[in-house]
Amino acid sequence: MTYARTEPTDQEPDIRARPPLVREFLLVAGLFLAYKFGRRAANGHVEEAFRNAGNVWDLERALDLPGEGAVQGVLLHSQPLIHAANTYYATVHFPATVLFLVWLYWRRPLHYLWSRRILAVLTGGALVLHLLFPLAPPRMLPAAGLVDTGQVYGPTVYGATPATDTMANQFAAMPSLHVGWAVMVAVGLIVATRSRWRWLWLLHPAITLLVVVGTANHYWLDAVVVVALLAVALAALRLPRAARNVPAHLPWAADGGAVPGGGAHVPAYAVPDADADADADAEAAADAYAVGAAHPARTPASPAHPARTPAGAGAGR
Q1: In whole angstroms, how large is the CA radius of gyration of the chain?
Q2: Three-state secondary structure of the chain
Q3: Cα distances (angstroms) measured from residue 142 to each of 54, 60, 137, 138
Q4: What's the CA gap between 295 and 125, in Å, rounded?
Q5: How far is 293 from 50, CA to CA, in rounded Å?
Q6: CA-to-CA distance for 30 and 28, rounded, in angstroms?
Q7: Is 28 exposed, middle or buried (0-12, 13-18, 19+ CB in 10 A)?
Q8: How far, in Å, are 125, 294, 297 from residue 290 at the CA level?
Q9: pLDDT tier at 287 (50, 70, 90 boundaries)?
């Protein structure tokens, strides 16, 4: 019996792989607080941050990268659009990452462990760069000639001046964790699901990139560096083999009793039984023999009607 292939669907979570909730909450919260305090420790390097900003700006021009002002110019054509970009920058970054981890924890425990490790390594690497390479964002660089859209149009998550900002280190532009976390959210959801629409998750990092550049909070190179860091983390920390397979709607398929990559076996009632087929063939042969015995004149092998064969074909042998 042959079954048609179907579109894959979500697999049931492996509860045994789900780590304790309280422990994970404390661990993730601890990592986040360590990162926040680490960024604050990198604050205050004003001269170095502006010197690095000038070098990054010159390097981008030497590499013929498009000016950040080209993106901002598009956003500034519409006040609702620039306001939406500022809102996206201020409100989507952290909640989207938290929801991503919560969903993975509940529905894909193995993917959750992998994604949490990747995000921890990525964030730790970013913190090291923040400490070693303080960088003023393009909205602060006079040579860039860009508008601080958060301060002008709102909303903004930063203070009016870095010196009075007690909530964030405004000289931690390199690399952009807005972009890094958004790319990891998209990668994690693409890997953890099998919907034909899953590639649309790439819209999140694409929009994030345009937003962070258009609002003059990051340079193009901030995104390039964080994607490179993420690529290293993904290469070093591979997804567990047990998390790579997602079953399909039907838990069986035509070949081998399992959907490729699904690991689900064919139910007993859906598998052609070799012994049953053999018994059926034997019964059919017995029935044919019985019919031939009861009506010898109707059987091809009946002596009353010998089979006619061409002469010399060995019919009587």
Answers
A1: 33
A2: CCCCCCCECCCCCCHHHCCCHHHHHHHHHHHHHHHHHHHHHCCCCHHHHHHHHHHHHHHHHHCCCCCHHHHHHHHCCCHHHHHHHHHHHHHCHHHHHHHHHHHHHHHCHHHHHHHHHHHHHHHHHHHHHHHHCCECCHHHCHHHCCCCHHHHHCCCCCCCCHHHCCCCCCCECCCCHHHHHHHHHHHHHHHHCCCCCHHHHHHHHHHHHHHHHHCCCCCHHHHHHHHHHHHHHHHHCCCCHHHCCCCECCCCCCCCCCCCCCCCCCCHHHCCCHHHHHHHHHHHHHHHHHHHHHCHHHCCCCCCCCCCCCCCCCCCC
A3: 9, 16, 11, 8
A4: 89
A5: 105
A6: 5
A7: middle
A8: 83, 6, 13
A9: low
Q: Which amino acid is at 152?
A: V
At 254, the amino acid letter reads A
**How many Å apart are CA 110 and CA 243, to the nearest integer?**
6
CA distance 269 to 16: 30
Tell which residue, 129, 121, 127, 133, has the closest CA to residue 232.
Answer: 121
Structure tokens at 220: 């193009």
Q: How many C-beta atoms lie closer than 10 Å to residue 9's C-beta? A: 13
Backbone phi, psi, residue 62, to 5°: -65, -30
Highest mean pLDDT among 7-11, 140-144, 164-168: 140-144
95: closest CA among 208, 223, 230? 208
Question: Contact at 8 Å (CB) between 70 and 159?
Answer: no
Most distant pair of Cα atoms in the chain: their distance: 115
Residue that has been written with the tokens 């986040």 in this structure: 32
- Six token digits for residue 274: 């070799």
On whether the CB atoms of residues 219 and 57 are closer than 8 A, the answer is: yes
The 10s digit of each residue's pLDDT in 18-57 is 878 888 888 888 887 877 776 666 566 788 999 999 999 9
248, β-bridge pairs? 8
Tell me which residue has tokens 């063939």.
281
Does pTM top 0.90 for this prediction?
no
